[in-house]
Here is the input.
Amino acid sequence: MAEAAEKKSRNPFRSMAKFFRELKSEMKKVVWPNRKQVINNTLIVLAVTVIIGAFIWILDAIFQYGLFQFITR
Here is the structure.
C-alpha cells in the first residue's frame, strides 16, 4: 500500500497537472469585487492610513517636545 502511494507521488508531472486542475476549480469559486467596491475599499484604506499617520505624527511631535524639554533642563 505504501509503495503504491510512493510510486504515484514520484511523477512530478501528474502532481503539477493535478495542482493546475484544482487551481482552475478554485478560481471558478472566486467572487471578484466590482469597480465601485474596489474604489470604495481603496478610499477607506487611504483615509485610515492618513488618519493613523497623522496620529503618529502628532504623538511624535509631543514626545519630541517633551524630550527636548527634558534634555535642555
